[in-house]
């Protein structure tokens, strides 16, 4: 049955979700406080980058199935909350957006409607934050107003495909809520839909990202220990991973982005028992400083030196620098009096001093590979380093080939490569 659906927050998650529902014939309203996003939507345009989204939005807006508004609409069958859940300076969750979105629903919701939280949230957000607010409607929760958490797990760059094909978790406040919310998603999701409680659903999403974070922290700790103990961590990883039940991840200059680097803090805030998770966050957050200290020791000081950073985004082949560890490295280098040059073909408008591959190292004392963008495959190291003061490359990703670098007369230093002293 076609429904009227209000998606609250039409950003990276909300807009594709709204467009997908609209493409299945539902009448969808995208409600957002950002006038620019709403105006663009009503013109059938988008202000975010995501392959395939522009065409889809254009189509569903032209069909009259998706409209934007800056006022919370009344009487929809379904309200889906997809607003931001950032962290505060002290690493606690900033739940003001979820709270405001929930409050906006209260005067507008009708009996029998469904409210779904999609935003990534700390455990018990539905129970302890949303339900007390939704109670103000006077409806019997779980009977006259159905409520669930269904976390979004899409990968930027593949959002349209993953919205359709990923499995989905639906955690209702009771079975009736879960079953009705499952029916809502069945119209857009081809993957399996698992039913559980709201708090379990919150925990599932957080543990997915925490699993990655903790395992990366282990790899980073291995890199540090290897340098200390005279071992090459990359040899350890390669050989240990031959074991059928071992899969050590890769170390690097830290963990970035707006999910893996943030979500584990929601567990640290809520549970005294999240000790390993807390330590993993600290380990990963310590990597930029570890990299800076190493550059310092390679150069015998940072003041007045010039460092070229290859890649500053939080992962390869994207333009997003949010929470990027290499951006932290850049700040620390500058604070220590170093000059920083950048080569990042993806982060063009986001950083100053951004040069192409073959001029980025001019006058530089060290080249540091921070992000393994595809553009850095097959570079001519002789050409790249020809105007360097000091021909040395520090690879934090084990990405460039040592032999190729050394053949060009350049010293190659690898993160996590300790030298055994016999
Ligand atoms: N971006 C991703 O790849 C991704 C993936 C999985 C989960 N998530 C989670 O999804 C949630 C949303 O993330 P996003 O990346 O889409 O955020 P976003 O910043 O791109 O979009 C959020 C939108 O919500 C709007 N908004 C804020 N408060 C509002 C309110 N009270 N009423 C109406 N609109 C409001 C903002 O103006 C913005 O347009 C977060 O919890 C995030 O952690 C994001």
Strand order of the largest sheet: 3-2-1-4-5-6-7-8
Q: Secondary-structure element sequence?
A: EHEHHEEHEHEHEHEHHHHHEHEEHEHE
Characterize the biggest β-sheet.
Answer: 8 strands, mixed
- Helix coverage percent: 25-40%
Count of domain modules:
2
Q: Approximately what portion of the residues adopt beta-strand conformation?
A: 5-15%
What Rg is obtained from the alpha carbons, in whole angstroms? Answer: 24 Å
Full CATH superfamily name of the largest domain: NAD(P)-binding Rossmann-like Domain
Number of strands: 13
- Named at the architecture level, the CATH assignment of the largest domain is 3-Layer(aba) Sandwich
Kindly report the oligomeric state of this protein.
single chain
Q: How does the helix and strand content classify structurally?
A: alpha/beta
Q: Separation of termini?
A: 74 Å
Which ligands occur here?
Answer: nicotinamide-adenine-dinucleotide
Enter the CATH topology name of the largest domain: Rossmann fold
In terms of per-residue confidence, which ranges show pLDDT below 50 for 5 or more consecutive residues?
none
Shape: elongated
CATH class category of the largest domain: Alpha Beta
Average pLDDT, rounded to a whole number, is 96
Give me the number of helical elements: 15
